[in-house]
Amino acid sequence: MKIAFFGTPEPSSKLLQALLEEPEIQIEFVVTNPDRPKGRSKTPQPSPVKEIALSANLPVFQYESIKKEKEKAMSDFSSFSPDLYVVFAYGSILPKEIFSIPRFGSINLHGSILPDLRGASPVQTALWQGYTKTGISIQCLGEKMDEGDIIQISEVPISLEDDTGTLMEKITNAGITSLLPLLKGNKNKAFDAIPQDHSKATYCTKILAEQRILDLNLPAMELHNRIRALSPDLGGFCQFRGKRIVLWKTKPSDFSEEGLKPGRLKRMDKKALLFQCGDGRFLELISVQPENKNRMPVGDFLNGFRITDEDRFE
Q: What are the boundaries of the signal sequence (predicted)?
């Protein structure tokens, strides 16, 4: 099968690499977001998908807005004849004039069990809301976001240790495992698909900057879920000794002690530090990042800041 691939971040590049390794799948071209400034130098850097595509000598197209530049995109694509467009975390919505071009249409991989968690942050939201399972949905692209008919769904379990990075890796692996047999086994017709039950739809949006501020009055599990949803890229933060501290990784603790003091720190030994939450339960800190410092394991934090039971997060 001949396809064109639309994607941008690291998980997309992993799927692209898997597709490149299949001799039965021919990739005609790749579409990804424009190069973006990174690092202190602010030098524009290619997306992970672009790097893989260029290393494979594939044609690469980039648009600030494919919706606004659809005429140019249609002209760019006119010399190719893929059977199918495959989209995974491209970062922009394809207009109908684009996704209708291939003879088998276009399909999208979405990181939830649709129609649940349609929208921009299904992986983070599943963690934020304390889900114990999620999945990857392969769907037909339509005019409305994430409302297309479902081709296949694969469930993915969520552990208490998962954060957005590890869960996204699980979802990507499930997507690869599901997609490759579909593409290799279907050569002569569009995929069979089932309409979604739109009455059961739920939605999610991008996480806002103010949502990174941790409310220490929340129950321990709610705080744990928020911290892991914000990791490993954003991080949730509070105050420590008048300065910001980012909490990158925690785990629930069985420790209990009288006295409801949200934010109170409890040093257990040279490498263990807990903090109390709004329901009286504690979370154990695994890694943190004090203001103007690098991310560090909690043992280094304990050694560097000489934590006592009088300290607390605010």
A: none
